[in-house]
Description:
Elements: H1 3-18, H2 21-28, H3 32-46, E1 51-53, E2 58-60, H4 62-88, E3 94-100, H5 109-119, E4 123-129, E5 143-147, E6 155-159, E7 164-170, H6 172-178, E8 194-195, E9 206-210, E10 213-217, E11 224-225, H7 228-236, E12 242-245, H8 246-255, E13 259-261, E14 267-269, E15 272-277, H9 284-298
Parallel strand pairs: 3-4, 3-5, 8-11
Antiparallel strand pairs: 1-2, 5-15, 6-15, 7-12, 7-13, 7-14, 9-10
Amino acid sequence: xxxxxxxxxxxxxxxxxxxxxxxxxxxxxxxxxxxxxxxxxxxxxxxxxxxxxxxxxxxxxxxxxxxxxxxxxxxxxxxxxxxxxxxxxxxxxxxxxxxxxxxxxxxxxxxxxxxxxxxxxxxxxxxxxxxxxxxxxxxxxxxxxxxxxxxxxxxxxxxxxxxxxxxxxxxxxxxxxxxxxxxxxxxxxxxxxxxxxxxxxxxxxxxxxxxxxxxxxxxxxxxxxxxxxxxxxxxxxxxxxxxxxxxxxxxxxxxxxxxxxxxxxxxxxxxxxxxxxxxxxxxxxxxxxxxxxxxxxxxxx
Length: 301
Protein backbone atom coordinates (compact mmCIF):
# COMPACT_ATOMS: atom_id res chain seq x y z
CA UNK A 1 0.00 0.00 0.00
CA UNK A 2 1.30 3.47 -0.89
CA UNK A 3 0.85 5.21 2.46
CA UNK A 4 1.80 8.64 1.13
CA UNK A 5 -0.83 8.39 -1.61
CA UNK A 6 -3.38 7.25 0.99
CA UNK A 7 -2.62 10.35 3.08
CA UNK A 8 -3.25 12.57 0.03
CA UNK A 9 -6.55 10.89 -0.87
CA UNK A 10 -8.81 13.24 1.20
CA UNK A 11 -7.28 16.24 -0.61
CA UNK A 12 -7.76 14.63 -4.02
CA UNK A 13 -11.41 13.86 -3.23
CA UNK A 14 -12.00 17.37 -1.85
CA UNK A 15 -10.70 18.99 -5.05
CA UNK A 16 -12.78 16.61 -7.20
CA UNK A 17 -15.93 17.56 -5.27
CA UNK A 18 -15.25 21.31 -5.02
CA UNK A 19 -13.73 21.63 -8.53
CA UNK A 20 -11.45 24.23 -6.98
CA UNK A 21 -8.16 24.10 -5.08
CA UNK A 22 -9.10 27.17 -3.03
CA UNK A 23 -12.53 25.84 -2.05
CA UNK A 24 -11.11 22.43 -1.17
CA UNK A 25 -8.45 24.07 0.97
CA UNK A 26 -11.03 26.23 2.74
CA UNK A 27 -13.14 23.16 3.55
CA UNK A 28 -10.13 21.33 4.94
CA UNK A 29 -8.62 24.35 6.69
CA UNK A 30 -5.40 24.50 4.66
CA UNK A 31 -4.02 26.81 2.01
CA UNK A 32 -4.60 26.37 -1.72
CA UNK A 33 -0.85 26.06 -2.31
CA UNK A 34 -0.66 23.09 0.09
CA UNK A 35 -3.57 21.46 -1.74
CA UNK A 36 -1.87 22.05 -5.09
CA UNK A 37 1.37 20.53 -3.79
CA UNK A 38 -0.48 17.43 -2.52
CA UNK A 39 -2.28 16.98 -5.86
CA UNK A 40 0.99 17.23 -7.79
CA UNK A 41 2.55 14.69 -5.43
CA UNK A 42 -0.39 12.27 -5.90
CA UNK A 43 -0.19 12.63 -9.68
CA UNK A 44 3.54 11.91 -9.63
CA UNK A 45 2.99 8.81 -7.53
CA UNK A 46 0.26 7.58 -9.89
CA UNK A 47 2.18 8.57 -13.02
CA UNK A 48 -0.82 10.30 -14.63
CA UNK A 49 -2.50 13.71 -14.32
CA UNK A 50 -5.75 13.59 -12.35
CA UNK A 51 -6.96 17.13 -13.05
CA UNK A 52 -7.09 19.53 -15.97
CA UNK A 53 -6.30 23.02 -14.70
CA UNK A 54 -7.02 26.37 -16.31
CA UNK A 55 -7.05 29.84 -14.81
CA UNK A 56 -10.82 29.54 -14.42
CA UNK A 57 -11.64 25.91 -13.77
CA UNK A 58 -10.48 22.54 -12.47
CA UNK A 59 -11.87 19.33 -13.96
CA UNK A 60 -11.02 15.64 -13.85
CA UNK A 61 -9.08 13.88 -16.59
CA UNK A 62 -10.28 10.50 -17.82
CA UNK A 63 -7.74 8.84 -15.53
CA UNK A 64 -8.90 11.10 -12.71
CA UNK A 65 -12.52 10.06 -13.23
CA UNK A 66 -11.49 6.40 -13.03
CA UNK A 67 -9.38 6.92 -9.91
CA UNK A 68 -11.99 9.03 -8.08
CA UNK A 69 -14.78 6.57 -8.85
CA UNK A 70 -12.91 3.74 -7.13
CA UNK A 71 -11.20 5.80 -4.42
CA UNK A 72 -14.38 7.60 -3.32
CA UNK A 73 -16.13 4.27 -2.77
CA UNK A 74 -13.20 2.98 -0.70
CA UNK A 75 -13.10 6.20 1.29
CA UNK A 76 -16.83 5.94 1.98
CA UNK A 77 -16.30 2.41 3.27
CA UNK A 78 -13.59 3.62 5.64
CA UNK A 79 -15.80 6.49 6.81
CA UNK A 80 -18.72 4.11 7.38
CA UNK A 81 -16.49 1.73 9.35
CA UNK A 82 -15.36 4.60 11.57
CA UNK A 83 -19.00 5.61 12.06
CA UNK A 84 -19.90 2.08 13.13
CA UNK A 85 -17.09 2.05 15.69
CA UNK A 86 -18.16 5.42 17.10
CA UNK A 87 -21.80 4.37 17.20
CA UNK A 88 -20.86 1.21 19.09
CA UNK A 89 -19.36 3.45 21.75
CA UNK A 90 -22.49 5.62 21.75
CA UNK A 91 -20.49 8.56 20.38
CA UNK A 92 -21.65 10.10 17.09
CA UNK A 93 -19.18 12.70 15.88
CA UNK A 94 -17.89 14.27 12.71
CA UNK A 95 -19.61 16.33 10.01
CA UNK A 96 -23.02 15.77 8.40
CA UNK A 97 -23.50 17.89 5.27
CA UNK A 98 -27.08 18.70 4.23
CA UNK A 99 -28.12 20.47 1.03
CA UNK A 100 -31.46 22.28 1.35
CA UNK A 101 -33.54 24.89 -0.46
CA UNK A 102 -33.86 28.16 1.43
CA UNK A 103 -37.55 27.60 2.00
CA UNK A 104 -36.74 24.52 4.10
CA UNK A 105 -34.87 26.71 6.57
CA UNK A 106 -38.19 28.33 7.44
CA UNK A 107 -40.33 25.19 7.46
CA UNK A 108 -39.30 23.26 10.55
CA UNK A 109 -35.57 22.59 10.16
CA UNK A 110 -34.62 24.63 13.26
CA UNK A 111 -36.16 22.31 15.89
CA UNK A 112 -34.46 19.35 14.20
CA UNK A 113 -31.05 20.99 14.47
CA UNK A 114 -31.75 22.00 18.07
CA UNK A 115 -32.58 18.40 18.98
CA UNK A 116 -29.50 17.12 17.14
CA UNK A 117 -27.35 19.49 19.19
CA UNK A 118 -28.94 18.17 22.40
CA UNK A 119 -28.57 14.49 21.49
CA UNK A 120 -25.23 14.57 19.67
CA UNK A 121 -23.05 17.50 20.78
CA UNK A 122 -20.01 15.99 19.06
CA UNK A 123 -21.64 16.09 15.61
CA UNK A 124 -21.63 19.18 13.38
CA UNK A 125 -24.58 19.47 10.99
CA UNK A 126 -23.64 21.75 8.10
CA UNK A 127 -26.65 23.06 6.17
CA UNK A 128 -25.93 24.64 2.79
CA UNK A 129 -28.84 26.69 1.42
CA UNK A 130 -29.15 25.91 -2.28
CA UNK A 131 -32.11 26.55 -4.57
CA UNK A 132 -30.40 25.07 -7.66
CA UNK A 133 -31.38 21.45 -6.86
CA UNK A 134 -27.75 20.36 -6.91
CA UNK A 135 -26.69 16.72 -7.23
CA UNK A 136 -26.01 15.91 -3.58
CA UNK A 137 -23.81 12.91 -4.39
CA UNK A 138 -21.63 14.77 -6.91
CA UNK A 139 -21.33 17.77 -4.59
CA UNK A 140 -20.22 15.70 -1.61
CA UNK A 141 -23.31 16.04 0.61
CA UNK A 142 -24.56 13.30 2.90
CA UNK A 143 -28.21 14.13 2.21
CA UNK A 144 -30.51 16.71 0.71
CA UNK A 145 -33.89 18.24 1.47
CA UNK A 146 -36.43 18.82 -1.30
CA UNK A 147 -40.12 18.98 -2.03
CA UNK A 148 -41.43 15.47 -2.65
CA UNK A 149 -41.81 15.56 -6.41
CA UNK A 150 -38.27 16.84 -6.92
CA UNK A 151 -36.52 13.68 -5.62
CA UNK A 152 -34.84 11.18 -7.95
CA UNK A 153 -36.38 7.72 -7.81
CA UNK A 154 -33.11 6.01 -6.88
CA UNK A 155 -32.92 7.87 -3.55
CA UNK A 156 -34.26 6.92 -0.13
CA UNK A 157 -36.82 9.54 0.96
CA UNK A 158 -37.90 10.29 4.53
CA UNK A 159 -40.78 12.70 5.16
CA UNK A 160 -39.75 15.82 7.11
CA UNK A 161 -42.97 17.83 7.13
CA UNK A 162 -46.69 17.28 6.58
CA UNK A 163 -48.10 18.21 3.16
CA UNK A 164 -48.15 21.98 2.83
CA UNK A 165 -50.31 24.51 1.04
CA UNK A 166 -48.95 26.89 -1.59
CA UNK A 167 -50.91 30.11 -1.22
CA UNK A 168 -51.00 33.80 -2.10
CA UNK A 169 -50.71 36.52 0.54
CA UNK A 170 -50.56 40.30 0.71
CA UNK A 171 -50.40 42.90 3.46
CA UNK A 172 -53.49 44.83 4.61
CA UNK A 173 -51.79 48.00 3.35
CA UNK A 174 -51.43 46.59 -0.16
CA UNK A 175 -55.08 45.48 -0.16
CA UNK A 176 -56.21 48.88 1.06
CA UNK A 177 -54.31 50.62 -1.74
CA UNK A 178 -54.94 48.18 -4.59
CA UNK A 179 -57.97 46.12 -3.66
CA UNK A 180 -58.37 42.34 -3.45
CA UNK A 181 -58.33 40.15 -6.58
CA UNK A 182 -61.68 38.42 -6.96
CA UNK A 183 -60.55 35.85 -9.53
CA UNK A 184 -57.31 34.37 -10.81
CA UNK A 185 -57.60 36.47 -13.96
CA UNK A 186 -57.60 39.60 -11.75
CA UNK A 187 -53.98 38.83 -10.80
CA UNK A 188 -52.92 40.29 -14.15
CA UNK A 189 -53.84 43.75 -12.84
CA UNK A 190 -51.90 43.32 -9.56
CA UNK A 191 -48.28 43.64 -8.51
CA UNK A 192 -47.20 40.01 -8.11
CA UNK A 193 -43.78 39.16 -6.69
CA UNK A 194 -42.28 36.73 -9.20
CA UNK A 195 -39.66 33.97 -8.94
CA UNK A 196 -36.62 33.25 -11.07
CA UNK A 197 -35.67 29.55 -10.95
CA UNK A 198 -31.93 29.32 -10.41
CA UNK A 199 -31.36 25.94 -12.04
CA UNK A 200 -33.23 26.51 -15.31
CA UNK A 201 -33.17 30.30 -15.34
CA UNK A 202 -36.88 30.34 -16.19
CA UNK A 203 -39.47 32.60 -14.58
CA UNK A 204 -41.79 30.48 -12.44
CA UNK A 205 -45.50 30.40 -13.35
CA UNK A 206 -47.61 30.12 -10.20
CA UNK A 207 -49.34 26.75 -9.72
CA UNK A 208 -52.97 27.44 -8.81
CA UNK A 209 -56.30 25.64 -8.68
CA UNK A 210 -59.29 26.71 -10.77
CA UNK A 211 -62.57 24.80 -11.08
CA UNK A 212 -61.08 21.52 -9.84
CA UNK A 213 -58.08 21.59 -12.15
CA UNK A 214 -54.47 22.65 -11.72
CA UNK A 215 -53.30 25.53 -13.88
CA UNK A 216 -50.10 27.51 -14.34
CA UNK A 217 -50.46 31.27 -14.17
CA UNK A 218 -47.78 33.67 -15.45
CA UNK A 219 -47.55 36.75 -13.25
CA UNK A 220 -45.72 40.04 -13.41
CA UNK A 221 -44.82 42.90 -11.11
CA UNK A 222 -42.14 45.29 -9.95
CA UNK A 223 -40.08 42.65 -8.12
CA UNK A 224 -38.78 39.19 -9.01
CA UNK A 225 -36.68 37.13 -6.59
CA UNK A 226 -35.08 33.69 -6.25
CA UNK A 227 -35.80 33.30 -2.53
CA UNK A 228 -39.32 32.77 -1.18
CA UNK A 229 -38.25 34.11 2.23
CA UNK A 230 -37.49 37.44 0.56
CA UNK A 231 -40.82 37.37 -1.30
CA UNK A 232 -42.39 36.92 2.13
CA UNK A 233 -40.59 40.01 3.42
CA UNK A 234 -41.61 42.05 0.38
CA UNK A 235 -45.24 41.08 0.95
CA UNK A 236 -45.01 42.20 4.58
CA UNK A 237 -43.62 45.52 3.34
CA UNK A 238 -46.66 46.06 1.12
CA UNK A 239 -44.84 45.63 -2.18
CA UNK A 240 -47.27 43.14 -3.68
CA UNK A 241 -48.78 39.67 -3.64
CA UNK A 242 -46.42 36.80 -2.74
CA UNK A 243 -46.70 33.09 -3.51
CA UNK A 244 -45.52 31.19 -0.41
CA UNK A 245 -46.07 28.08 1.71
CA UNK A 246 -48.50 28.20 4.63
CA UNK A 247 -45.79 27.20 7.14
CA UNK A 248 -43.82 30.33 6.24
CA UNK A 249 -46.60 32.78 6.96
CA UNK A 250 -48.84 31.13 9.59
CA UNK A 251 -47.75 33.54 12.35
CA UNK A 252 -48.23 36.59 10.09
CA UNK A 253 -51.72 35.44 9.11
CA UNK A 254 -52.64 34.90 12.74
CA UNK A 255 -51.41 38.38 13.70
CA UNK A 256 -53.12 39.99 10.73
CA UNK A 257 -49.85 41.21 9.20
CA UNK A 258 -50.74 39.28 6.04
CA UNK A 259 -54.04 38.29 4.44
CA UNK A 260 -54.63 35.26 2.23
CA UNK A 261 -55.64 36.02 -1.35
CA UNK A 262 -58.01 33.71 -3.27
CA UNK A 263 -57.82 30.78 -0.81
CA UNK A 264 -59.85 28.61 -3.17
CA UNK A 265 -56.98 28.84 -5.68
CA UNK A 266 -54.34 27.46 -3.30
CA UNK A 267 -52.85 24.00 -3.97
CA UNK A 268 -51.45 21.23 -1.78
CA UNK A 269 -47.78 20.26 -2.13
CA UNK A 270 -46.28 16.97 -0.87
CA UNK A 271 -44.15 18.68 1.78
CA UNK A 272 -40.45 18.40 2.53
CA UNK A 273 -38.46 15.17 2.36
CA UNK A 274 -34.96 14.24 3.44
CA UNK A 275 -33.30 12.11 0.77
CA UNK A 276 -29.99 10.28 0.39
CA UNK A 277 -28.39 7.41 -1.56
CA UNK A 278 -29.36 3.96 -0.29
CA UNK A 279 -25.73 3.06 0.42
CA UNK A 280 -25.45 6.04 2.80
CA UNK A 281 -28.22 4.77 5.09
CA UNK A 282 -25.72 2.71 7.12
CA UNK A 283 -23.85 5.81 8.33
CA UNK A 284 -24.55 6.34 12.03
CA UNK A 285 -24.61 10.14 11.76
CA UNK A 286 -27.26 9.97 9.02
CA UNK A 287 -29.30 7.40 10.95
CA UNK A 288 -29.19 9.72 13.98
CA UNK A 289 -30.48 12.62 11.87
CA UNK A 290 -33.28 10.47 10.43
CA UNK A 291 -34.34 9.45 13.96
CA UNK A 292 -34.67 13.10 14.97
CA UNK A 293 -36.53 13.98 11.75
CA UNK A 294 -39.08 11.23 12.41
CA UNK A 295 -39.45 12.16 16.07
CA UNK A 296 -40.00 15.81 15.15
CA UNK A 297 -42.67 14.89 12.60
CA UNK A 298 -44.42 12.69 15.15
CA UNK A 299 -44.33 15.48 17.73
CA UNK A 300 -42.13 13.52 20.14
CA UNK A 301 -39.94 15.28 22.67
